[in-house]
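Two proteins were folded this term; both appear here.
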Amino acid sequence: MKNETIGSKIIKLEKVNSTNAYLKKLQNEKKLAHGTLVIADKQTAGKGRGDNYWESEKEKNLTFSFIIYPEYLKAKQAFYISKCVSLGIAAFVKNYVDDVTIKWPNDIYVGKKKIAGILIENSIAGDTIASSLIGIGININQTYFRSKAPNPVSLKQLTGINLDLKNSLEVLIMSISQYFSLLENEKYKEIDKMYSVSLYRFQEMANYKILGEKEKAKITGVDEHGRLQLEATDGKKYVCNIDDVSFL
């Protein structure tokens, strides 16, 4: 993967159901070059976690997917991919607005509103990560959202500025690539620290539903497997998978 560039090959589509699904189909037909990126003007069924989907108006936002081959990573280190992508997107958004955080495990927030989402699908070979397919949706110029999602927001809504999508993609890729460079150079502790302090509600007492019970707790970090670490008001500590905890 070293010295190869995300977006070195770009496939631009006018319309597609899902850039992740399209890229996966191409990969199944023939191994793609590292960094191959698919971007669509309009994505009609962008995937989120579970049954969620990503709403995107034509030619208003960035909806794209790319593939990398991080074979230097052990399977147990898979969450570092999410950390680097999240940090890269957050850094991009911080070029324009403040109060940018990472809502574990795969959303980028400005204040209490969602501006970007990430979907990562890893392929494991033995104890290493053979490939990682990374889908990103980020709200750039859209100003009206029709879906039932309660809290979407765009950079245009926050800044009043209509951004150039081509330039935004270039800057975003550069930002994400910088964090992957840290990962390739095994700067794990540096990444861990930046990620923890960037977490939404980090060290703030807030309401959660943990293992089916309502709890007041604070986020203290994420463990090596990407599980969320929380500490309740009574000092009880939790380590949660995605289905174990809900933000209230």
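Next, the second protein.
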Amino acid sequence: MPVEAEPAETFFPQVSKTVPAGTPHPPDTAYHISIGLEQWESGFIPVVKIQMVHEGKIMDRGPSFPLGSEDHQKVNKAICELLEEYAAGNAKE
């Protein structure tokens, strides 16, 4: 029996991409970028969410983009691609 309750899911991704993180991040670290619905006090809000992933597990910290790397450019490109994909998917409905 767990000592602590599992946190309730508050984010529901609809489209996602993973971008490998550059050095000096440890090997097998990536940025997981998603567009989806996040539960806020006012209801479900569409958001772009960036999470750090290491060895396939979501880390407890927010994303950091080392200066001198192209990580922020790669993540921004992935966000733009996801926004286009999300807009195209919503236009079909």
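Strands lie at 11-20, 29-40, 43-54, 57-58. The longest strand covers residues 29-40. These notes refer to the second protein only.
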